[in-house]
Write a structure and sequence with these properties.
about 220 residues, alpha/beta, five-stranded parallel β-sheet, two-stranded parallel sheet, 8 helices, about 35% helix
Protein backbone atom coordinates (compact mmCIF):
# COMPACT_ATOMS: atom_id res chain seq x y z
CA UNK A 1 0.00 0.00 0.00
CA UNK A 2 2.96 2.36 0.53
CA UNK A 3 3.46 2.49 -3.27
CA UNK A 4 0.07 4.07 -3.78
CA UNK A 5 0.39 6.52 -0.92
CA UNK A 6 3.84 7.55 -2.22
CA UNK A 7 2.32 8.61 -5.52
CA UNK A 8 3.69 5.69 -7.52
CA UNK A 9 1.53 4.54 -10.42
CA UNK A 10 1.07 1.06 -11.81
CA UNK A 11 2.13 -0.89 -14.90
CA UNK A 12 -0.18 -3.80 -15.67
CA UNK A 13 0.05 -6.50 -18.33
CA UNK A 14 -3.41 -8.08 -18.04
CA UNK A 15 -6.93 -7.63 -16.78
CA UNK A 16 -6.03 -9.83 -13.81
CA UNK A 17 -3.16 -7.56 -12.83
CA UNK A 18 -5.43 -4.53 -13.09
CA UNK A 19 -7.93 -6.21 -10.76
CA UNK A 20 -5.14 -7.07 -8.30
CA UNK A 21 -3.91 -3.46 -8.25
CA UNK A 22 -7.38 -2.07 -7.66
CA UNK A 23 -8.02 -4.62 -4.90
CA UNK A 24 -4.72 -4.22 -3.04
CA UNK A 25 -3.49 -0.66 -2.40
CA UNK A 26 -6.08 1.55 -0.66
CA UNK A 27 -7.26 4.25 -2.98
CA UNK A 28 -5.66 2.96 -6.19
CA UNK A 29 -7.34 4.51 -9.21
CA UNK A 30 -7.75 3.19 -12.78
CA UNK A 31 -6.43 6.58 -13.92
CA UNK A 32 -3.09 5.65 -12.31
CA UNK A 33 -2.70 2.46 -14.36
CA UNK A 34 -1.01 1.99 -17.72
CA UNK A 35 -2.13 -1.17 -19.51
CA UNK A 36 1.32 -1.79 -20.95
CA UNK A 37 0.86 -5.09 -22.77
CA UNK A 38 0.98 -4.37 -26.53
CA UNK A 39 -1.02 -7.56 -27.19
CA UNK A 40 -4.29 -7.48 -25.25
CA UNK A 41 -7.40 -9.63 -25.41
CA UNK A 42 -10.66 -8.10 -26.60
CA UNK A 43 -12.16 -8.93 -23.21
CA UNK A 44 -9.40 -7.06 -21.36
CA UNK A 45 -9.83 -4.05 -23.64
CA UNK A 46 -13.54 -3.95 -22.79
CA UNK A 47 -12.73 -4.30 -19.08
CA UNK A 48 -10.15 -1.50 -19.16
CA UNK A 49 -12.65 0.72 -20.95
CA UNK A 50 -15.43 -0.03 -18.46
CA UNK A 51 -13.40 0.78 -15.35
CA UNK A 52 -11.63 3.85 -16.75
CA UNK A 53 -8.03 2.86 -17.52
CA UNK A 54 -7.00 5.61 -19.91
CA UNK A 55 -3.49 4.74 -21.14
CA UNK A 56 -2.17 1.74 -23.06
CA UNK A 57 0.60 0.53 -25.38
CA UNK A 58 0.58 -0.84 -28.94
CA UNK A 59 3.25 -2.05 -31.34
CA UNK A 60 1.21 -2.70 -34.49
CA UNK A 61 -1.65 -1.19 -36.50
CA UNK A 62 -3.62 -4.38 -35.84
CA UNK A 63 -3.61 -3.63 -32.10
CA UNK A 64 -4.85 -0.10 -32.78
CA UNK A 65 -7.72 -1.48 -34.86
CA UNK A 66 -8.58 -3.97 -32.09
CA UNK A 67 -8.78 -1.17 -29.52
CA UNK A 68 -10.90 0.96 -31.84
CA UNK A 69 -13.41 -1.84 -32.36
CA UNK A 70 -14.08 -2.02 -28.61
CA UNK A 71 -14.93 1.68 -28.40
CA UNK A 72 -12.10 2.29 -25.95
CA UNK A 73 -10.42 5.70 -26.33
CA UNK A 74 -7.17 5.52 -24.33
CA UNK A 75 -4.04 7.56 -24.77
CA UNK A 76 -1.71 5.37 -26.81
CA UNK A 77 2.03 4.89 -26.46
CA UNK A 78 3.82 3.15 -29.33
CA UNK A 79 6.30 0.55 -28.17
CA UNK A 80 9.47 0.57 -30.25
CA UNK A 81 11.76 -2.36 -30.97
CA UNK A 82 15.20 -1.61 -29.49
CA UNK A 83 18.57 -3.27 -29.04
CA UNK A 84 18.29 -5.77 -26.17
CA UNK A 85 21.00 -8.25 -27.14
CA UNK A 86 22.79 -7.94 -23.79
CA UNK A 87 19.71 -8.78 -21.72
CA UNK A 88 19.11 -12.11 -20.05
CA UNK A 89 15.53 -12.09 -21.33
CA UNK A 90 15.29 -10.08 -24.58
CA UNK A 91 11.79 -8.86 -25.51
CA UNK A 92 12.18 -7.34 -28.96
CA UNK A 93 11.91 -10.76 -30.59
CA UNK A 94 8.18 -10.52 -29.92
CA UNK A 95 7.41 -6.93 -28.83
CA UNK A 96 8.12 -3.57 -30.43
CA UNK A 97 7.47 -1.76 -33.70
CA UNK A 98 10.26 -1.71 -36.28
CA UNK A 99 11.06 1.52 -38.12
CA UNK A 100 9.12 0.49 -41.22
CA UNK A 101 5.91 0.25 -39.14
CA UNK A 102 6.02 3.62 -37.39
CA UNK A 103 4.08 5.67 -39.93
CA UNK A 104 1.48 2.94 -40.43
CA UNK A 105 0.75 2.78 -36.70
CA UNK A 106 0.46 6.57 -36.45
CA UNK A 107 -1.90 6.57 -39.44
CA UNK A 108 -4.10 3.94 -37.80
CA UNK A 109 -4.23 5.97 -34.57
CA UNK A 110 -5.28 9.09 -36.50
CA UNK A 111 -7.78 7.21 -38.67
CA UNK A 112 -9.54 5.88 -35.57
CA UNK A 113 -9.55 9.28 -33.81
CA UNK A 114 -7.35 8.00 -30.98
CA UNK A 115 -4.76 10.05 -29.11
CA UNK A 116 -1.04 9.41 -29.61
CA UNK A 117 0.60 10.12 -26.25
CA UNK A 118 4.18 9.04 -26.77
CA UNK A 119 6.60 6.13 -26.92
CA UNK A 120 7.75 3.19 -24.86
CA UNK A 121 10.49 0.61 -25.01
CA UNK A 122 11.98 -2.18 -22.89
CA UNK A 123 15.60 -3.24 -23.26
CA UNK A 124 14.80 -6.67 -21.83
CA UNK A 125 14.95 -8.12 -18.36
CA UNK A 126 18.26 -8.16 -16.49
CA UNK A 127 20.37 -6.16 -18.93
CA UNK A 128 24.13 -6.30 -18.42
CA UNK A 129 24.79 -3.32 -20.72
CA UNK A 130 23.62 0.09 -19.40
CA UNK A 131 24.41 1.72 -22.77
CA UNK A 132 21.36 -0.06 -24.20
CA UNK A 133 19.23 2.62 -22.52
CA UNK A 134 21.08 5.34 -24.41
CA UNK A 135 20.60 3.56 -27.73
CA UNK A 136 16.92 3.00 -26.97
CA UNK A 137 16.38 6.70 -26.20
CA UNK A 138 18.22 7.51 -29.43
CA UNK A 139 15.65 5.30 -31.20
CA UNK A 140 12.88 7.38 -29.64
CA UNK A 141 14.56 10.53 -30.95
CA UNK A 142 14.79 8.94 -34.39
CA UNK A 143 11.03 8.23 -34.27
CA UNK A 144 10.26 11.88 -33.52
CA UNK A 145 12.59 13.09 -36.27
CA UNK A 146 11.45 10.61 -38.91
CA UNK A 147 7.71 11.01 -38.30
CA UNK A 148 7.75 14.71 -37.30
CA UNK A 149 5.50 13.69 -34.40
CA UNK A 150 6.45 14.86 -30.88
CA UNK A 151 6.23 12.32 -28.07
CA UNK A 152 4.88 13.92 -24.91
CA UNK A 153 5.71 10.86 -22.79
CA UNK A 154 8.49 8.27 -23.00
CA UNK A 155 8.27 5.08 -20.95
CA UNK A 156 11.81 3.73 -20.55
CA UNK A 157 10.63 0.33 -19.35
CA UNK A 158 12.55 -1.66 -16.76
CA UNK A 159 15.01 -4.52 -16.56
CA UNK A 160 17.11 -2.74 -13.91
CA UNK A 161 19.58 -4.73 -11.83
CA UNK A 162 21.06 -3.51 -8.52
CA UNK A 163 24.63 -4.13 -9.70
CA UNK A 164 24.31 -1.91 -12.77
CA UNK A 165 21.58 0.46 -11.62
CA UNK A 166 23.86 3.46 -11.02
CA UNK A 167 25.45 3.10 -14.47
CA UNK A 168 22.03 2.66 -16.10
CA UNK A 169 20.69 5.75 -14.33
CA UNK A 170 23.73 7.73 -15.51
CA UNK A 171 23.16 6.67 -19.12
CA UNK A 172 19.46 7.53 -18.92
CA UNK A 173 20.03 10.90 -17.27
CA UNK A 174 22.71 11.89 -19.79
CA UNK A 175 20.47 10.91 -22.73
CA UNK A 176 17.51 12.84 -21.32
CA UNK A 177 19.61 15.95 -20.74
CA UNK A 178 21.19 15.72 -24.19
CA UNK A 179 17.76 15.53 -25.84
CA UNK A 180 16.47 18.49 -23.87
CA UNK A 181 19.56 20.58 -24.56
CA UNK A 182 19.84 19.92 -28.30
CA UNK A 183 16.19 19.64 -29.35
CA UNK A 184 14.08 21.05 -26.54
CA UNK A 185 11.06 21.58 -28.79
CA UNK A 186 10.79 17.82 -29.44
CA UNK A 187 11.88 16.54 -26.01
CA UNK A 188 9.28 14.61 -23.97
CA UNK A 189 7.56 16.40 -21.11
CA UNK A 190 7.14 13.23 -19.07
CA UNK A 191 9.45 10.26 -18.45
CA UNK A 192 8.14 7.14 -16.75
CA UNK A 193 9.65 3.73 -15.94
CA UNK A 194 8.69 0.22 -14.83
CA UNK A 195 11.16 -0.69 -12.06
CA UNK A 196 9.35 -3.80 -10.82
CA UNK A 197 12.34 -6.10 -11.24
CA UNK A 198 14.54 -3.65 -9.35
CA UNK A 199 12.06 -3.56 -6.46
CA UNK A 200 12.04 -7.35 -6.20
CA UNK A 201 15.78 -7.93 -6.72
CA UNK A 202 18.18 -8.77 -3.91
CA UNK A 203 19.32 -5.76 -1.94
CA UNK A 204 21.86 -7.29 0.46
CA UNK A 205 24.72 -9.76 0.53
CA UNK A 206 24.99 -11.74 3.76
CA UNK A 207 28.44 -11.51 5.36
CA UNK A 208 29.21 -14.10 8.03
CA UNK A 209 32.73 -14.01 9.51
CA UNK A 210 34.37 -17.22 10.71
CA UNK A 211 35.87 -16.52 14.12
CA UNK A 212 37.40 -19.89 14.91
CA UNK A 213 37.59 -23.56 14.03
CA UNK A 214 38.33 -26.76 15.87
CA UNK A 215 38.43 -30.46 15.28
CA UNK A 216 35.28 -32.38 16.01
CA UNK A 217 34.30 -36.07 15.89
CA UNK A 218 33.93 -35.92 12.13
CA UNK A 219 36.93 -33.71 11.37
CA UNK A 220 37.27 -29.95 11.23
CA UNK A 221 34.22 -27.94 12.16
CA UNK A 222 33.63 -24.23 11.55
CA UNK A 223 32.48 -21.62 14.05
Amino acid sequence: SWLNTAGVRFDCASGREIRDVLASPPGASPANIIFANPHKTIQDCHFANEIGVNRTVVDSPEEVEKIAKTGWKPEILIRLAVDDAASRSPFSIKFGAERGQWQEILASIARNSLHFGGLSFHIGSASSDPTQYKRAIDTCKAFVQRTATPAETVDIGGGFLPDTFADSASQIRASMEEWHSTAANTAPKHWIAEPGRFFSSRSHTLYAPIISRKKGPGGVGWR
